[in-house]
Amino acid sequence: MAQLLRVQNFNISSDGIGAGEHQSLEVPFGLPAPQRLFSWAGATASWPMRTDPGGSRGLDDYFTRDFSHNIGAEIMGRNKFGPQRGPWLDHEWRGWWGDEPPFHTPVFVMTHHERPSYTLSDTTFHFVDAAPATVLERAREAAQGKDVRLGGGVSTIRQFLDADLVDTLHLAVSPLELGSGLRLWTSPDELLDRFHLDVVPSPSGVVHHLFWRK
Amino acid sequence: MAQLLRVQNFNISSDGIGAGEHQSLEVPFGLPAPQRLFSWAGATASWPMRTDPGGSRGLDDYFTRDFSHNIGAEIMGRNKFGPQRGPWLDHEWRGWWGDEPPFHTPVFVMTHHERPSYTLSDTTFHFVDAAPATVLERAREAAQGKDVRLGGGVSTIRQFLDADLVDTLHLAVSPLELGSGLRLWTSPDELLDRFHLDVVPSPSGVVHHLFWRK
Which residues, 6 or more positions from B109, have their beta carbon under 8 angstroms from its beta carbon? Predict the structure, then answer.
């Protein structure tokens, strides 16, 4: 079975924006704060951060519960790891993700500034200064036969699309315009030369876009 | 985490029919043959019986690949096991499902005629003459914390609905009328007093109906 590189549950606005600008330690997603983009996932029964019982078990729940299935490693850009730019000034700070990161696999952080790997709970972070194809090769090896999730953010996904390394994408498009920020696309049609597309409106208002390689 | 009783990927026609009549060894699904009801699943990349690479990875694929996730046991009616009625005349015949049954868990076959359990590959069949609540209790125990799949057929699902034991249902409604056969419902509205419903049309033509308990 081929090991796929999959974008899963990546959230963007109706105008294609997946993250704000001016990211900082206090404002992980930048401004304007795009947290509203993932409210659909928080409403589902399978949302990993859910603390009370309940939540919906309809269409959106399939996507939240599929997030980790058959995933053996994640690749993320440095901005998904933290707000720092340039050389690391502080190895003590260990990412946005707390003592129990939600990945539960090896994670490969793409950065021009490598630093030692470390493990938090069942997630190990590696820092790699390499081209997308090389990072993917390392992630596939670590995934031990399972698929690799491409976690984002926007510019990391664009790099892997440019290198034609992505096998499937699930983008959840929320019915709100952000106007400014980091833009994944102007229109989903930009990917149709290389991908099939199912457009699936959810009763929650989000429109799931499912791409798979032709 | 609660152990759910889930109907998964159960296929019916637009007029609510899930199986034909006059089931026999040669015609497992009865007449008129409703195999066309699951062609949507066979077209997906995750279809377990797929022998060639390829297949779609859009919406329908989420449902085929979710079939086994977090399932620890299955309950089925006797007609899903085989065409025999009344006392077993032949213990040599071991069900429709071949030497590698697609369940990979304990399976509880509801029947008024018990017979010894046996194992084929990683599936063990048990034969239970008991009310739905009792069978569910045994299946939950065997599932070791995972969910239980209610595999059908039609009359088995109706029994568990009547006993109010079902937590979620995924019904795939195909755009064809069968006219006669075993009918699950006249309209999905019959379940709306007890369940939420997401209606999700797939680009393949099938309409996924996702119910979860209110």
Answer: B76, B77, B78, B80, B81, B125, B126, B127, B128
Domain boundaries, chain A: 5-17+68-88+95-213
Interface membership of A33 toward B (CB under 8 Å): no
CATH architecture for segment(s) A5-17+68-88+95-213: 3-Layer(aba) Sandwich (3.40)
**What's the pLDDT tens digit per position in A32-50?**
666 778 889 999 999 988 8
Interface of B with A in 72-91 (CB under 8 A): none
Question: How many angstroms away from the CA of B193 is the closest CA of chain A?
Answer: 16
A214 touches chain B (CB under 8 A): no
**CB-CB neighbors (< 8 A) of A202 in chain B:** 198, 200
**B5-20+29-44+55-83+100-207: CATH, from 3.40.47.10, 3.40.1390.20, 3.40.50.300, 3.40.430.10:** 3.40.430.10
Q: Which helix (H) or strand (E) holds B182?
A: strand B182-183
ipTM: 0.86
Best CA proximity match to B136, nearest among B150, B121, B119: B150
Residues A122-147: tens digit of each pLDDT: 999 999 999 999 999 999 999 999 99
- Give which of B180, B15, B66 is closest to A61, Cα–Cα: B66
Which of A199, A210, A213 to mutate to probe the B interface, most B CBs <10 Å?
Answer: A210
B77-105 pLDDT per residue, tens: 998 888 888 898 888 888 888 889 999 99
Interchain contact B66–A (C-beta under 8 A):
yes
